[in-house]
Amino acid sequence: MQPAILIRLPKLLIGFIFIITLTTIGYQESRRLDKAVSPTGVVGIMMLTNDTAAELGIKNRADPAQSINGGARYFQQRIQTISEQIPEPGRTWFALASYNVGLGHLENARALTKKQGGNPDKRMDVKQRPPSLTQQKWHQQAKHGYARGREPVEFVENIRSYYDLLVWLTEENQIKKNAMDVDSEDPEHEAVTIDPAAL
After folding, report:
1. Are 156 and 96 in contact (CB under 8 A)?
2. Same domain? 98 vs 44
3. Which H, E and C letters describe 103-162, residue by residue?
4. Phi, psi of 54 (to 5 degrees)
5. Is residue 73 part of a domain?
6. pTM given for the model
7. What confidence score (pLDDT) does residue 192 get?
């Protein structure tokens, strides 16, 4: 999606995109299992840490409503924390990476990108660096140290794939619904097959 398109979207559609993104985060984090627990001790559908849950006022991370509410607010915080100089959709992808690995480790990856001659504001340049933060050579130089570097890259890529699929399915269903709304007896309307990929 081009940044100009995102800027012009109606509030309802922006809300819809946010809901799809939250759905994909919940699926990627826990497969939407409310009692899920990770090896690092994060809990619930949105996999909130104890510290994040406390900061957000979440009392029970395993409660689906509290977890989703907390995850939504935390993701919104992540988006607001990422520099506005990073254009969309890159800003959202960086926010997702920081949701998974933390802002400090994302900033380490951006600093390493710059040090190695890449653009720290471009996702395609930065996404190559987090795996390096598992290597002693690089994480010793990083302000926030060692990171599970492959996880945020896979996390964002998987969410991008789920997101694209949900958007495609939603568009496909809307096309089918619109086709069903056309009165077949009306001579002003013809049945037309539309390829969603061509839209």
Report:
1. yes
2. no
3. HHHHHHHHHHHHHCCCCCCCHHHHCCCHHHHHCHHHHCCCCCCCCCCHHHHHHHHHHHHH
4. -65, -45
5. yes
6. 0.74
7. 38
Task: Look at residues 50, 81, 112 and tell me which one is the last residue of a structural domain.
Answer: 81
Measure the CA–CA gap between 140 and 194, rounded to whole angstroms: 54
Residues marked active site are found at 29
Domain range enclosing 74:
6-81
CATH number of the domain enclosing 59:
1.10.530.10
151, amino acid identity = E
Domain boundary (53, 81, 109) is at 81
Q: Is 159 helix (H, G, I), strand (E, B) or coil?
A: helix
Does residue 50 fall inside a structural domain? yes
How far is Cα 120 from Cα 130, in angstroms, rounded to an integer? Answer: 12
Taking 3-state DSSP, the helix, strand and coil percentages for the chain, each rounded to the nearest 5, stand at: 60, 0, 35
Parts of the chain with a pLDDT under 70: 1-14, 16, 176-199
